[in-house]
Amino acid sequence: MNPWLMLVGLMMVLTLLAAGVGLIVDHRVITGAPAWVKPAKFAISFSIYCFTFVWLLTFVQRWKKLVALVTAVSTIGVIGEMGLIVLQVVRGVASHFNRATTFDSTIYSTMGTFAVLLWVGAFLTAILLLFERRTEKALLWSLLLGLVIAMVGMYVGVMMTQPTAMQLAAKHAGHALLISGAHSVDAPDSSPGLPFLGWSTVGGDLRIAHFVGLHALQVLPLVGWLLSGQRFSCLRIGHRVALIWTISLGYLGLVASLLWQALRGQSLIAPDALTWLTWSGVVGLTLLAIVAIVVHARLNVIHSTRLSV
User: Of 33, 99, 118, 201, which sees the most CB atoms within 10 A?
Assistant: First the structure.
C-alpha cells in the first residue's frame, strides 16, 4: 500500500465534495460552464488516477527508491495542478489556456509543468514494470499497455495547448493573445456541450480522445486481471498475451479514431459515414482477432484431449 498516493486520492474525494457544494451555492459561469464543474471533474479524474497507481505500484517488487520517486512526482503533480485549478476558480477566471495577464500566464505554464510530472511518473512506472518477472505475463502486459495508451491520452492534452488557427491569425494581426489553445475544434470552448462533461455538441472536442486514452489505465488492467489466474483454463499464456495485445491495439485504434474525428471538427454525437466506417473497422477487426485467438485455443484443447486418450 502506498500511503502518500492513498492520502492524495482521499484529498481529491474531499475536493470533489467541496466542488459539489460550490456548484450549489456559487452560480458563477466561467467559459460557458458553472465555475465549479472543472474542479469537480478533475477531482474525480485525479482520485481514480491516484487509487489506480496505489494498485499499480504493488506490482513493483524492487526499486523502492524509484517507487518513492514516482510517488513524489505524481503527488506533486496532482496536488499542484488541482490547487491551481481551484485558485483560478476562486478568482473567477479560466485556468486552462488563460494568458490574459502575466499572473494567469504563469499559472497556466506552471499547470503544464505539473502535468509533465504526471507523465514522467507514468513513464517511470512503465519502465519499472518492464523488469518485473513475478507477475503473470498477460496481467503484466495489460499494465504496461494501459500505461502506454494512457500516456498517449496525456499527449492529446498537450495538443490542446497549441493556439488555434483563429488565435494565430489574431496574433499575426497584432492582437494580444489572451487565450492560447482550446478543447474544441471549429467551435468555441463556450459552445453547447454534453451535460457535466462539456464535450462540444457542435464541433470537434479533443477531450474525448484524452479521456478515453487516460482510462486505458483502468480498462486494460481490468481485462488483464479477468484473463489471469484460472478463470479461463482453456487459454494458454500465449493466448492470454495475444488477447491483451489485440484488445489494447483495438483500444488504441478507438482513441485514434476519436482524435481524428475531433480534428475534423466533428461532434461525437454527429458522426458522419466515414467515422462510422472507422469505428466499425476498429471494432470488427478487434472482435475478429479475438474470435480467432479463442478458436485457436479451443482447437489446441481438443487436440491435446485426443492425444491424451
Answer: 118
